[in-house]
User: Fold this.
Amino acid sequence: MIAAGIAAVLMAALHGPSVDRSMMKSHRVVILGGGFGGLSAARSLARLPVEVTLVDRRNFHLFQPLLYQVATGALSPANIAAPLRAVLKRQANVRVILGTAVGLDARRNVLLLTDGELPYDTLVVATGVRHHYFGKESWERLAPGLKTIEDATEMRRRILLAFEAGERETDPERRRALLTFAVVGGGPTGVELAGALAEIARHTLANEFRDLDPSEARVVLLEGGGRILPTYPPDLSSAATRALHRLGVTVRTSALVTDLSEGCVRVKQGDAEEDFRAETVLWAAGVAGSPLGTALAKEAGALLDAVGRVAVGPDLALPSHPEIFVVGDLAARNDETGKALPGVAQVAMQEGRHVARVLAARLRGAPPPPPFRYLDVGSMATIGRGAAVCDLGFVRFNGPLAWLAWLFLHLMYIVQFGNRVLIFVQWAWNYLTWNRSARLITERPPAEPGSPRRANSP
Assistant:
């Protein structure tokens, strides 16, 4: 009997939280999106008698806060992505489906996929946001944003190709344009991109070219507001600006991008407009709700804000359809002071857990939990090696200590332990050598004229 008990304990430890399938009810929970909000909701439902189906068009969970490090060659895509099936394989009441949602039928409680339908009793929408070009959608081709692995590798390709083209360029004006990088948007992503670009030019690529001095590169950070990191306290914005200046980044505030064309950026500051040449433009200036927000408005009567995010009630459900929840960046929700919640991972994760609490109360027939309230654990942004800003609410600081805090907290939020180890080792090596070993140009090479092309060739 003792041996059997020990065996049961060991099996429980190996297989994680268990769900008694004999008690499983027919309540079907469909979670759309495997990001921070969707994955948090799925994990929080582990011990409830529900059948969970997680749907995502990708088979992996992506740690978006480190996407800029893929874009700048510090990490490879596999370092910051974890297969969803591997993450959830020990949670018996969850199945993962690879699929793309195109809409829903709220009257029939059915999620519409490109290849079929998926019925639900409770729907959790966590599809996030996309790039927002303020009505200038043609700019997307000229200035890629940073939301997906493909975005990051495209940015990396453009950045590295600019240096490669500069190596062969003999016209000084053309070379100057090739080595000018414009980053649009002074939020955390824009600041991190600008700092990383400056470090690449001044340190990583040093002595790697024979006819080019990479340190001649010019990085321009354009922010439409009065200061960079506008959601941070002014003293931290000032500290970030000083850190960028030390790296050689040109910071221009109150600078609105009014037009983009091939190799040219038009900027308006006050009443003056200026055109300057920049062959590489990177977009970090705004977000818009995913197309599922529009579907929720059409089919479920959801209200959308100016950028297409979905207004939710205190329990994160649609007021008109309490069986539909929206979490993460797609949800438009204010805190108790009336301030919009930030689009960060912690908000999405806390919202995912709250949905599980609401659903647990409904299944038990118990009173609902208190309205969702975001516990602000602080915000931070890194500017470069040994430079970061950190706002924990009760204390604010910057410099090396903030940088170490940024490293530690980002490591702890990586989903898989193996990825934490790999990233830690890579960061340590990068710190010692200034190297960024994932500097790969991965575009498909053109076929040589007259060469045969196999059916299975790329």
Notes: Residues 226 and 302 are 34 Å apart (CA to CA). Residues 1-25, 451-458 have pLDDT under 50 and may be disordered. The chain has twelve helices and 25 strands. The first strand starts at residue 28 and ends at 32.
